[in-house]
Each structure stands twice: as structure tokens, then as C-alpha cells.
Amino acid sequence: xxxxxxxxxxxxxxxxxxxxxxxxxxxxxxxxxxxxxxxxxxxxxxxxxxxxxxxxxxxxxxxxxxxxxxxxxxxxxxxxxxxxxxxxxxxxxxxxxxxxxxxxxxxxxxxxxxxxxxxxxxxxxxxxxxxxxxxxxxxxxxxxxxxxxxxxxxxxxxxxxxxxxxxxxxxxxxxxxxxxxxxxxxxxxxxxxxxxxxxxxxxxxxxxxxxxxxxxxxxxxxxxxxxxxxxxxxxxxxxxxxxxxxxxxxxxxxxxxxxxxxxxxxxxxxxxxxxxxxxxxxxxxxxxxxxxxxxxxxxxxxxxxxxxxxxxx
Length: 313
Ligand SMILES: CC(=O)N[C@@H](CC(=O)O)C(=O)O
Ligand SMILES: [Zn+2]
Hints:
This is Aspartoacylase. The chain is an alpha/beta fold.
């Protein structure tokens, strides 16, 4: 297959940012970024300028997900081109500022790579979130990280869904990478989650350094979980939740869910079963921040993507 033989030449990744506090109550990213703002030795690499940055300082101060609106949905073309002014929601103003520093989104001036650090209350372990199946630089980075952290594992969630995709803070970079580690409650630090996040980032930065030094990365395949569908909690006519995630599904992120498997449990103990047509892999199961987004979990499908060989130009 030609895709296995072609070498894709890519620009070096000289400008890298690490975002923490996009959600102000996700403490691993907030804490790591604050640490690195004080002393950046750990994130320095030869030939790379790495900028640690707190994206939503007001939300961090309140230890809340956001102040007016979710910053990680705010980087839409409409918001970014809206006239600047104090009458805009805080996060929209902030998105414009951040786009000015690390973007502009979609332009040659944009940062090369942005890592955005998140925590989830779901039992997802280490998850890297990508927005494109065609970004060979990011796919190679995923392969490098997976190999480097073995026998620990990290999974790749691909959100390329035309309707479920959202306008993230990291989306202003040429190569956006979300890092989602859990389970960790909102406002809480857990040492195992904190350290897992730190290790992933170390390997990611090592990859960028090697790439910039001219190393060639041969073609490989990367297993990803592609976002398929958002599943809401069962609700009554008033919109109130009438069931919880079923105990058989709770904490079983990334495990196969088959048609007929228990999915929700009503308050009077009835089981609601999955009605899909085939096996899916649920994730973000019972994420605290997603109650407001009408989402109990997302379903995904396992796929193997081919990453072309890459080398710097
Ligand atoms: C729990 C959480 O905040 N998750 C992130 C996922 C992402 O960064 O794509 C979000 O919804 O923005
Ligand atoms: Zn988050």
C-alpha cells in the first residue's frame, strides 16, 4: 500500500504550549502547569520552546469548571471573530485573548502543538484525545507514547464526529492534543492521576525533540476509539433524570457493551438495556461535568489507523 511507503515531510514543531485549567476544577493540569510556570526545567527540550499556560484563571480561582460558559466549547469561528468587548461572556473574551497569543486558529502563525490537560471523574485511565484521523504527526506521537509507557497503557479517543465535535482550546494549534486522565473527582488531586499525566507529557515532549532532531518515524498502525454517539440519561417529561448508570456499566470505560447488556438502573431497580446493533466501547461513563450536557456516556468503535512515515522537511 502506498500509504506505507510515502514519507510525509513536516515542519519542525518549535512552538509548543501546555494548557492547564481550561476547566478550573480539574486539578492535575492546574497543578502541573502552575508548577512548570514557576520552574520549567522539566518541560524544556532541545530545539523546542514550551510554554505552560493557565487558560481559565478565573475558573481556577473559583475551582469551578467555568465562570460564564465552557471555555472548551468557546473557540468557534463566530466567537473568535466577534467584536471584542466587555459585554461578551468571560470565556469568550478569554478565547479571543488565547487565540491572539497561541493562534490565530487555522493560520501559519498558530502554535505547532498544544497539549490541553484535563481530568475526568470517569474510570478512563490515560486517554489522549485527537480531532483528526489524518494528522500523521499526532498519530506518530500516539504510537511513540504507547510504546514508551508500556506495560502501562494509554488509549486514544478520536473525536472527528461532524455533530459531536466541539471547538476546544487546543483546536487553535496545528496539532491539537487533549490529555484526559481519570478517575479523579472535581477539585481533588490524586497522586496516581497526577503522576500518570506527568509521564505522558514527558514522553510527548521527548517525541517532539526527536522529531525536530531529524529522526524518521516509520509507518505504523495506531488503535483508536472513534466517537460514535452520545447517550443521555433516561429522563421524565420535565427533563429530570429517572435512572442511573447501571452497576454493571459503572467504571467499565473502554470495555465492550453489547446489545442487551445492562446500561441504566431506574430508582425503583429496573434495568434498562443497550439497544444498539453491535458491540460498542463506551467511555466518559458518568462524567460529572456531562450531566449539564445531557450525556451519560459516549459510545465508540475500535479502529486501526495507518500513520505514514514522517520526517522533518
Ligand atoms: C471532562 C472533560 O472536561 N472533558 C473534556 C474532553 C476534551 O477535552 O475534549 C471536555 O469535555 O472538554
Ligand atoms: Zn476538562
